[in-house]
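Table S2 (text version). Query chain:
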Amino acid sequence: MTLCMPFLYKMVEGFDIVKSPEDVPFYAGLLLTSYSLCQAIPSMYWGVLSDRIGRRPALLIGLAGDLATFVLFGLSKSFTWAIVTRSLNGVFAGNSAVVKSVVAEISDDSNRPRMTALLPLMWNIGVVAGSAVGGLLADPANQYPSIFGRCEIFRTFPYLLPCLVGSLTTAMGLFVGLFKLKETLVIPPVAAVPEAQENGAATESTPLVVQQSPEQQQSMFALLTPTCRRVLTINVLMCLAISMYYHIYSMFAASPPRDGGLGFNTQGIGISLAISGLVVIYLQLVAYPKLVQKYGTLRCCQIGLLGMVPVFFAIPFLSLLSARVEQFVANRVPVDLLVSQSWMSPAGLEYGMLWILLLALLLARMVGDILAFTSINLIVSNITPTKTTLGAMNGMQQFSSTCTRIIGPMLSGTLWGWSIKHKMVYPFNSHLVWVLCGVLIAVSWKMAMALPSSVNVFASGHLPRSRQ
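Corresponding structure-token output:
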């Protein structure tokens, strides 16, 4: 998903459907929204399919489809081709929920929290690797003319190489699934049926309907206590802000300084995303478990949200520094500073300062992201009234998060295009989307401060149950 972020702006900019730079954010948002929408709609059906044919076949079908459609996306020369292949890619990626079922079926109470924590870790490793691959390998004929300059296929399809390399990981997963993965779905044996019932005759002990416990008979919405509703609202606001951020950052970094951007090329975008993502691995494996044991999930969530607020307001001001060194920024990435003496010039020093400030802000946002999102997931599990309703609560959280991934890119793309076209005063200029993200996170923080202390969790393993 993140592999295309570094080159998305340049790819869309080259389509015939784009008539002006102001159109790029809108069509880029459509591409991202189509992926999220087509991933969300069939996700439930992937689960049903895996219940019928098994987890392994469902996963293999999804991996094979994902492999083919992502390569086809790299062959995009028109917006129509891009959105069709990206949508199909989303359909096959919708089976990611099957992975959670597999993890649940191969684990037990002693190791399930640790195994479940591996899923977001793998996702964040993918964010780092995908951002680096997408940024460093996009348009290789122009980025590395001595190596790929004579490869006509990469001149015709400048974004095929990163898609091919990204597909290698899918191919590896497909290979492992074919030869190593065992079926985890165990169909329970059918209970013995009394002879009278086999003949169609009812007895006094034969129930007319399957009896449900009072907990099962409760409406899903009746289980939404005030605390549950508040936590889910915080989750929605957080997800909306972050989905807007992931889309707008690539637009912001690729746009010229006159439009409120940084003027980076695909290498610069990919490197900035990859470096900022590296901190995730340390945070999730080492730092976060210690922090949550010491301060609890509620305090970690509050700190994470509060830390992200100034970051969103500050990032767009970097465009002012980028405008001062626009000619130096063009076609340069941090690697240039290490292999030349150009960094000794005044423009080079300012360019270096731009990168230091940018990475500091991106790292701060990533730290806040991990603290807030990981904590809110644990809080959701803790506030669920009963164990039998945990799936329903997680389902509502997942559904609301998916909706924000559909709305966020379209909203941020439309607002970004509108703001750079009309060039109004602050905050309705190029800062508009960033200010909106900051406001959403600020509201989330305010709501988190009002949560009762009973939602707190001080360990990542066995969770104390809340009865709010």
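Notes on Table S2: DSSP finds 21 helices and no strands in the chain. Residues 266-314 form the longest helix (49 residues).
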